[in-house]
């Protein structure tokens, strides 16, 4: 725009009054008796060395500057100064910007000043500060623009920090204005809060295009020159690659402004601009939510996408960023997704290849050491497992043999009682009283004579019965005539087992399945022997019943000195009244377990039941007349056994051994955690003698490489 000129008149020229400070001729109508250069120096309030040239009469504003009256200084940058001014003729208040050094300005400053006016004049957008007039007055290029009375975004940052959605709406408007500039080939390159001005209604306007660049043509900036404000410039801009800048640089700056609005500080801060530039290129910004925990995760994701080191990873345009901000402001989900931990780690490795390589070597050493330790530990563990299973196998054979020996002793006692003349005579005569007395005497004599008394001195049997050949109860001890006498127990397994032996003419006693008492509801199992008369005619059955519980009579299966090892005895369950159940279909119940109370039981789970059946399938089938002790090949092992009464404890290493041909199974189980105890000790020793040196060496390598990198950066 042409320089405004004063119209000619016919009056004779008046001698020009010299400037009181420098002696330069003054134009008519200037205030304060000073030239524009001295007025400008005075307005800078001591920031330039020329202020001492102004006399006291010219040391204050307002002052005349061509057709404008300078009212007050608004801001000053490295190249220019902005005044609030009034057009004298139009009485319009504007913002007037001029070059600080005027005619003394460098060619680069003048070029940038004109580039700013040209860039701003090309752009017409509701959120870009409009240019009114461009001119030059006495060697001072200037232009006027709309005065923004709301201050800059920096003045409102504290308020917006508590209003994230308002900040998002405001930055969306700024992003659309920046996108408008991009559409017209203008990169701003210096977006920051002081360069975003607010009008009286709080609407944002982008200003200060002083270092703006035309995308399609080169400016005066040389490669390697850093242009912009370090805290807000993109990594590629901080590297000085001005010619390679794209719209992604402004997108980064918009993200940096949003980061500051939400957290109260820019993404990077440092003791010097060089320190900030180094962080911009090499470091990742702190996660936004660590500085502002109340910020939504979507807004954090959006902000960090703008701050990606690689331009291609940012939003493709400022318009795309604006749309994301508008989505967030409306409460809608954004498109961008947060970066995962794996991706963040990979990017750190790419930025620090030397340190990453060292860490990889250290990690390889640690993994090799750990793999060796685990291999040794695994071998030790497997050996220990095999050792424990072998010990449990032997213990299960021993336990099964002890149970079988006790059962044989019980069978001898009950068989002896069945041959007594008193029971034969009482059963033939149907003398219930005589049978009651007989059973009471047998409970004392048979157990005493055969050494079956418990440690407390009592009998191992809780109930004695006499049944006739039809299974009818003819005598019971303890007595309960009204409940039992005359009832048929022909469906019970103990009667059917003894009946089967009698039909073959045998004399051995039979060990029955477990069952629930119809009188007390307690769980029992029985030993039954057939009764013959003098002519070997079968008359009935004598039955002695024992209760389930923690011990088997006087036999305690568990070893008190081994709390991590238990012995469990399992038996098949009798069929319900009025029915029959094949053995392969019957349930299996716990007869002896240290946690059982007398008369209690517990049904096995499907997995344990399958292993018990496998052991029974291997059991000898010689019959009760010729009991046979189990062999090692008949034992079934498991490394994942579950205790039926303590399913939360485990797993256990267990061995299942059949108790002869009785269909009972003895289980010896050792807590798996006990097996790990020596292994943990071994692992600790391996970690101490092999892992610690590797860790120490790795740490030394990392520290050394870090020191080398710091020295290299310092030299750079």
Explain what you see.
The protein is α+β, with helices and mostly antiparallel strands and 716 residues long. The chain has 3 domains: 36-145, Phosphorylase Kinase, domain 1 (2-Layer Sandwich); 154-351, Transferase(Phosphotransferase) domain 1 (Transferase(Phosphotransferase), domain 1, Orthogonal Bundle); 389-673, PAS domain (Beta-Lactamase). Helices cover 39% and strands 16% of the residues. It is built from 18 helices and 21 strands. It has helices at 36-43, 107-122, 157-161, 164-183, 235-238, 247-263, 273-282, 288-291, 297-306, 318-329, 341-351, 353-418, 421-429, 432-449, 481-484, 493-503, 606-618, 672-715; strands spanning 63-65, 68-76, 80-87, 93-99, 131-137, 140-145, 186-187, 196-198, 204-206, 213-214, 463-468, 473-477, 510-511, 515-516, 523-532, 538-547, 565-572, 588-592, 636-641, 652-658, 665-671. The strands form 5 sheets. A 6-stranded antiparallel beta sheet has the order 1-2-3-4-6-5, with helices on both faces. The relative contact order is 0.06.
* Name of the level-1 CATH class of the largest domain: Alpha Beta
Helix content: 25-40%
CATH superfamily of the largest domain: PAS domain
- Residue-averaged pLDDT, rounded? 82
What number of structural domains do the residues give? 3
Based on DSSP secondary structure assignment, what is the total number of beta strands? 21
Largest sheet: 6 strands, antiparallel
The span between the termini is 46 Å
Number of helices: 18
CATH fold topology of the largest domain: Beta-Lactamase
Shape field: rod-shaped
Could you say which structural class the secondary elements and strand pairing correspond to?
A: alpha+beta
**Portion in strands:** 15-25%
Q: If classified by CATH, what would the architecture of the largest domain be?
A: 2-Layer Sandwich
Radius of gyration: 51 Å
């Amino acid at each position: 725009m042409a320089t405004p000129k004063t119209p000619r008149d016919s009056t004779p020229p008046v001698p020009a009054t010299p400037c009181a400070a420098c002696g330069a001729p003054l134009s008519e109508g200037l205030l304060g008796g000073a030239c524009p250069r001295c007025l400008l120096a005075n307005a800078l309030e001591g920031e330039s060395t020329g202020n001492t040239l102004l006399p006291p009469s010219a040391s204050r504003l307002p002052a005349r500057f061509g057709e404008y009256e300078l009212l007050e200084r608004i801001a000053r940058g490295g190249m220019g100064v902005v005044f609030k001014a009034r057009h004298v003729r139009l009485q319009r208040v504007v913002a007037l910007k001029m070059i600080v050094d005027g005619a003394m300005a460098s060619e680069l400053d003048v070029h940038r000043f004109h580039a700013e006016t040209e860039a701003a004049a090309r752009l017409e957008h509701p959120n870009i500060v409009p240019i009114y007039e461009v001119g030059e007055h006495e060697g001072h290029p200037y232009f006027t623009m709309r005065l923004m009375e709301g201050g800059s975004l920096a003045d409102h940052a504290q308020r917006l920090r508590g209003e994230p959605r308002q900040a998002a709406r405001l930055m969306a408007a700024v992003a659309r204005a920046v996108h408008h500039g991009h559409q017209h080939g203008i990169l701003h390159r210096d977006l920051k809060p002081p360069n975003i001005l607010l009008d009286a209604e709080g609407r944002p306007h982008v200003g200060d295009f002083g270092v703006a660049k035309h995308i399609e043509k080169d400016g005066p900036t040389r490669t390697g020159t850093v242009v912009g404000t370090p805290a807000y410039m993109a990594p590629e801009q901080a590297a000085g690659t001005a010619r390679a800048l794209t719209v992604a640089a402004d997108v980064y700056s918009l993200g940096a402004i949003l980061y500051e609005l939400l957290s109260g500080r820019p993404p990077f801060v440092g003791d010097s601009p060089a320190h900030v530039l180094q962080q911009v290129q090499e470091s990742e910004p702190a996660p936004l939510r660590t500085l502002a925990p109340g910020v939504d995760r979507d807004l954090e994701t959006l902000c960090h996408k703008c701050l990606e080191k690689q331009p291609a990873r940012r939003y493709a345009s400022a318009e795309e960023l604006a749309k994301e901000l508008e989505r967030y402001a409306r409460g809608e989900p954004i498109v961008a997704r947060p970066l995962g931990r794996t991706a963040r780690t990979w990017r750190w490795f790419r930025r620090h290849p030397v340190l990453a390589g060292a860490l990889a070597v250290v990690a390889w050493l640690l993994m090799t050491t750990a793999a060796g330790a685990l291999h040794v530990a695994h071998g030790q563990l497997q050996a220990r497992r095999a050792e424990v299973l072998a010990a449990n196998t032997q213990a299960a054979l021993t336990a099964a043999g002890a149970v079988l020996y006790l059962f044989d002793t019980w069978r001898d006692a009950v068989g002896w009682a069945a041959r007594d003349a008193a029971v034969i005579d009482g059963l033939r005569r149907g003398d219930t009283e005589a049978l009651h007395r007989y059973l009471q005497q047998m409970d004392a004599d048979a157990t005493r004579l055969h050494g079956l008394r418990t440690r407390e001195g009592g009998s191992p049997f809780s109930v004695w019965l006499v049944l006739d050949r039809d299974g009818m109860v003819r005598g019971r001890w303890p007595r309960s005539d009204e409940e039992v006498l005359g009832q048929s127990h022909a469906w019970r397994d103990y009667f059917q087992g003894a009946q089967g032996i009698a039909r073959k003419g045998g004399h051995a006693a039979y060990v029955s399945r477990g069952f629930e008492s119809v009188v007390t509801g307690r769980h029992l199992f029985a030993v039954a022997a057939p009764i013959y008369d003098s002519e070997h005619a079968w008359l009935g059955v004598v039955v002695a019943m024992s209760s389930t519980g923690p011990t088997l009579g006087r036999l305690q299966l568990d070893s008190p000195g081994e709390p991590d090892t238990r012995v469990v005895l399992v038996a098949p369950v009798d069929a319900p009244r009025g029915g029959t159940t094949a053995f392969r279909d019957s349930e299996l119940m716990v007869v002896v377990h240290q946690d059982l109370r007398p008369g209690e039981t517990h049904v096995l789970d499907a997995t344990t039941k399958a292993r018990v059946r496998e052991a029974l399938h291997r059991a000898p089938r010689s019959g009760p007349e010729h009991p046979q002790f189990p062999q090692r090949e008949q034992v079934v092992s498991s490394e994942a056994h579950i205790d039926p009464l303590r399913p939360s404890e485990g797993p256990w290493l267990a061995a299942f051994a059949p108790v002869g041909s009785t269909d009972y199974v003895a289980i010896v189980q050792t807590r798996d955690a006990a097996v790990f105890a020596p292994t943990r000790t071994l692992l600790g020793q391996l970690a101490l003698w092999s892992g610690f040196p590797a860790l120490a060496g790795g740490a030394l390598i990392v520290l050394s490489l870090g020191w080398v990198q710091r020295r290299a950066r310092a030299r750079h």
